[in-house]
Design brief:
This protein has 24 helices and 23 strands. By secondary structure, the protein is α+β, with helices and mostly antiparallel strands. The strands form 7 sheets. It has a 5-stranded antiparallel sheet with strand order 4-3-9-8-7. A 5-stranded mixed sheet has the order 11-14-15-17-16, with helices on one face. β5 (about 265-270) and β6 form a beta hairpin. α4 (about 115-125) runs parallel beside α7 (about 165-230) and α11 (about 395-425) packs across α15 (about 555-565).
Amino acid sequence: MIHSTVQASKLLQEHQQAVYRRTDRTFAVLMVVQWFAGVVAALWISPRAWAGTVSSLHPHVVAAVVLGGAITALPVFLAVTRPGFALTRHVIAISQMLISALLIHLTGGRIETHFHVFGSLAFLACYRDWRVLVSATIVIVLDHLVRGLFWPFSVYGVLSAPVWRSFEHGGWVLFEDVFLFVAIRQSVAEMRNVAIVSQVKSETAAELSRSEEALRNQTQILESVLTSMGDGVVVADCAGKFLVFNPAAQQILQMGRTETRPEQWTEAYGVYLPDTLTRCPIDQLPLVRAIRGEPTDAVELYVCPTPQGRGDWISVNGRPLRDTHGALLGGVVVFRDVTEAKCSEETLQKAKRIAEAANLSKSEFLANMSHEIRTPLSSILGFTELLRRGIGSPEQQNTYLDTITSSGRHLSALIDDILDLSKIEAGHMEFERVPCSPHQIITEVLSVLRVRAQDNSLRLEGVWTSAVPELIETDPARLRQLLMNLVGNAIKFTERGGVKLVASIAWDSPEPRMLIEVHDTGIGIPSERMDRIFSPFEQADSSITRRFGGTGLGLAISRHIAHGLGGEIAVESEPGRGSVFRVTLRTGPLEQTRILAAPPSEALMAVDSSKSGSLVTLSDASVLLVEDGESNRELISLVLQESGAKVTCVENGQQGLETASRDRFDLILMDMQMPVMDGYTATERLRERGCKLPIIALTAHAMRGDREKCLQAGCSGYLSKPIDIDELLRTVAVTLNELKADSDGSSHEAGKGQTNVFASAEPSSVITSSLPINNLNFRPIIEGFVTRLHARLEEMRTACEEADWDTLVEVAHWLHGSGGTIGFMCFTDPAQRLGQLAQQHNIRGIDDVIREISMLADRIALPV
C-alpha cells in the first residue's frame, strides 16, 4: 500500500510537471501576442500629436513597445529555458498582471480592459497551483491601490477617484480567487485520484502480465513434462470425453493407428475407449471409475493385443479430478507400458530356473567329483599303507605299486579337466597354430589308449579315407586332448565290439577341413539328452556316473576345444547300438604342404616303444635340489641317489642361492614356488653372479606360458609336477651328458678341479620306431629316415656355424613332421624348440638342441 501511494504521488508530480511545462509554453506565446496587441491598441487609441507642422507619437505607443517588451522578455525566456520551474510560474503570473495593468493604462482606464485581469487570473488557474494566484493577486491589488491613489486617470479614466474603488477592485479579484482556489483544489484532487487509479491500473496490468507469463511458463512446463513423460496421461471430463492426452498415451493406446483412431472408439457408459481396452469389463476400467468419482488407487494390468499379434502389458491407474470446492470435474488416468518389465520378470524367472538347474548340476558334479577323487585316493592311501606294513609278496607289492600309479594318474587327469574347465569359464583357454603332423597325433592317441581298449577286450583301430597332409596348422596339444577325450569316452562306454577312428581331409570346401569321426558300439545316448551332453557337469543319465564313473566335463571341454580350433563337434547316437562323434577342424592353407598317400590302418595300431622304462645311471653326479616340499625332496633325492648321484637338499631359494654360490655342483633342480625366495628370483640371481650350471625348473604349473617364463628366468630345462621318474632321470642324464661333451672331459667352471663321470643310458634305453618294424614294408622307410637324419644333422651344425637361420627353420620343420610320421615322437619337442630358437636367432640355445637331437639319433635302434 505504501509503495502504491508513493508511486501515485510520483505519478501526480509527473502529471503536474507536464501541466506546468505545457502552461508555461502557452503563456509564452500568449504574452508575445498580448505585447503586439498592446502596441496595436496604443497606435489605435493614441494617435499621433501635431504641433504646427510637426507631429510625434503618443507616449503610450512608446510605453506599449518598451514596457510591453520588457515585461514580456523575462517570462518568455524562462518559459523557454526553465519550463516547469516554480520561479517561471510566478514570473509569468506577475508579468501577466503587469501586462493587464499596461493595457488598462493604454486604454485610459476603460472598464472593459479591467476584465483582462479576471481573464488572466482564469488563465493562471490552468497551472492548478493556487500559489501562482497569490502572486498575481498581490501584484494587481498593489497596482490598483498605488495608481488609484496617485494616478487614478491611468486606472479609472478620471482625474480623481475615491480610495474605496481600489478596495472594490481588489475585492472582486479576491472574489474570483476564491472560486479559482476551489476549482484548483478539485482539479488537483482529481489529478491525484487519476494518478492513484492509473497506478492501480498499472500495477494490476503488471500483475496480470506476470500472472499470464507465469501461467504461460507453467503451461509450457506442464506440456514439456507431459510430452517427455514415458507414462501416458489422459484427462477426461465427466462425459468421458478426452480433454488432454500426451504423446505417450497416444503411443501406448495406439491412437495413431488408422484402425484405432478416436472416432472409431466404442462408447461404454458414455466413455470413449479404444478397442484394445474394451476387452476388459467396462465397469472395472479405472477411467470409468475415476469419472464416477470412485477412488482407484490400485494398479491393474491389461493385455492389449496389436494387429501384429504381439501382446503388450499396460498398467492403468485412475483418479477422480475435482475442483477446490470438491465438485467432480472428470478423471485423470495414467497409462504405463510394463511389457518390458513383464518380459524382464519372465527372463529373470527363466534365469532363476536355469541357475537352479545349474546349481543342481554342480551339486551333482561335486558329489560325482567327491566319488571320483575319493576312489583313487582310497586306493593310493590303502595300498600305500599295505606297502608300509610290508604286507604281500613281491609280486603283490608290484601290483600295489601299479594300482597306486594308475590311481595317481587318474587324479592328475581329473585335476587337468577341472583346470581346463576353470579356464574355459574364465575365458582364458588359449590356442596356438603351429605346423604339426595329424597322422602323428592320431598315432600317439591310439597308441596310448590301445592298452585300455585291450584290457576291456575291445578293438581299437584307425583309418585314413583320404590323402594325408604331412603338416597342418593347429594346436597339437589341444587336438591331442580332444581326441583323447573322444576316444577315451568311446572306450569307457563300450562294453563289447570296438572303437574306430576315421580321419579324412575335405578338399571340396573353399578352405580344406579335417574330418574326424569316432565310432563306437557302446550304450548310446537317448535323444532327449543329446542337447545336454556338451554342457558342463552333464552326462546322459545320472546312472551313468554310478556305472561308468567320470565327472561329465570331457565333452564340454571337447566342444570348447573344437571351437577354439576353428571347428565344430556333433553327435549321432542310438541307444543300445552306439554313437558317432564328428569333429571338423581348420587345417590352414595346404598349398605348400606335401600330400602323402593314406597309410594303412596298421600304421595307426602300432605300439610306442620309445618309452620303455629304461634304467639311467648317474655316476657321482653332484646335484643341488632346491625344493620346499618335504615329500618331494625325499622322493626326488631317493630316485637320484639310487641312480648314483650325490644330492644336496635345501628348502628355499635363498638357501639354494647361498649353497650354489659356496659349493660345487654339476646341476641344479629348482622348484619355482617356494617361501622366502622363489625359484625365478633365485635363478636370476645365480645367472647375475655368473653361474653357468644347468638349472632345471620344477613347477606344479602346467599351463601355457609357464615353460617360457622359466626359460626367461634363466632355466636350462623344464619339468612339470607331478614328476615323471623316467622323464626326470632322462632329462638329468641328457643334460649332464651334453655338459660333458661341451667340456671335452674337463670340468665346468663351477666344478673346476672336480672330475664327474656321467654314465650313458643302458642298452635297454634305445629308441625304436612306433611303426610296425616287424613289417618288411616299413623297414626301408625307417632306415631311409635314419640315414637322412644323420645327413641333416650335418646341415644343422653347418647352418649353426654360419648363422643360416632359414636353413635351420627348414630342417626343424622337416624333423618335426617326418620324425613323428616315421614313429619317432621323441624328435617332436626338440624340433619345435629348434625352429623357435632359429626364429629368435638364439645361437646358444640352438647348439644345445642340436646336441640333444644328435644324442637321440645315436640311440636309435634300426630294425634287424
